[in-house]
User: What shape does this take?
Amino acid sequence: MANSKKKNVVRRGNNEGSITYREKENRWMASVTLGYDENGKRKRKVIYGKTRSEVAIKMTSLLGTKLKGGRASIVNDPLEILMHQWIITFKRAEVSPRTFDRVLANARLYIYPEIGKLKLEEITEYTIQALLNKMIFAGYALATVRKVKFLLNQFFTYAHKCKFIDGNPVTECKVKSTKEHKEKKADDYKAIPIEDRQEFFDVICQYPFYETLCLMQLFGGMRIGEVLAIKWKDIDFDNNIIAINNAITQIPEFDENFNVISRKTVISDTKTCASVREIPMPETLKKSLLKWRENREKHQVKTGMSFIAPNDLVFATDDGKLRTYWGTKTMFDRIIKKHGLDKYNIHFHSLRHTYSSMLFESQENPKVIQQLLGHKDVTTTIKTYNSVDRSYFKQATDKLDCKFKK
Assistant: This one.
């Protein structure tokens, strides 16, 4: 019987061309056609990589090289293919994995289904503006629409620079908020209203873990991601200060076609450089933290595990692990619903908004509030975190009335 030779395993992924696994060499390879010379002979380049994804990325990076012979080699490719190649080659290199995940999601959800099959030369200012208008009138958040426009502008700027197209069709497109968006924003009171705060406080104090967790946001203005990343060494009980240096985030893991297959919660840097800060610890919060520390100390004695060492997480799970945002939120939502507080639309960020509103109610300087919240710009603090309750209007007119009478 003749010896049979093992054949190389050849697999083809979406928009990848042919990528071959070289079993003897234990690596992946691909042969890319770059064009033809003056004699009609095909120009080819062979690339190698340890993984299939590595070869796929190298293949897409050759897209610009294909243009050396003119635009003819790519004019028939639709936007979906070219933009996807650009995202996984260039955007992936300049953003975090989480942001890369969002960029891919925005492209796949909003761009590809609408204009992904069009060739670049078929896409005009009207095409882009129509897409943006459709999203606005469909009720998508303006922030989402602007992100889509920003992504399209980046891609078409690149395409124009590479001479795929003669101009950027996104340049003159506009994203303006509709009347409905403006009215909704004006009437949206994000903080817990003054008259409902005591009811929320009475409920949450029945749950030791969530009492302290929520007070960190209500009396410290911390983001939930910052709270879950806090360690005991970050809390200075002698000087009543809490240091914010980290936050939790999710790191996505992708398959070879850049679909998310899992997300891992890890401790990372804060949202921005301005988010690194020290905040004063009010007495109410301090008492709650000390009470929670006693709770953790008892659990430490019971389990033999460490829960109150300097590097231990303040809000670790009962087996000492890092909590996830979604797991913490799910339990919080159940409590809110159980006690009938869901009618107030309370979520974690409502507590941070309430902290800000209480400071504004106390007539604190907006610049001070900005630093306590960890904002880069005071405009964000004033516009977004200064929720205007209707009672403010009466207080303002009463002051005017009082001055007029005097």
In short: Residues 64-187 form a domain with the DNA polymerase; domain 1 fold (CATH 1.10.150.130). Residues 283-303 form the longest helix (21 residues).
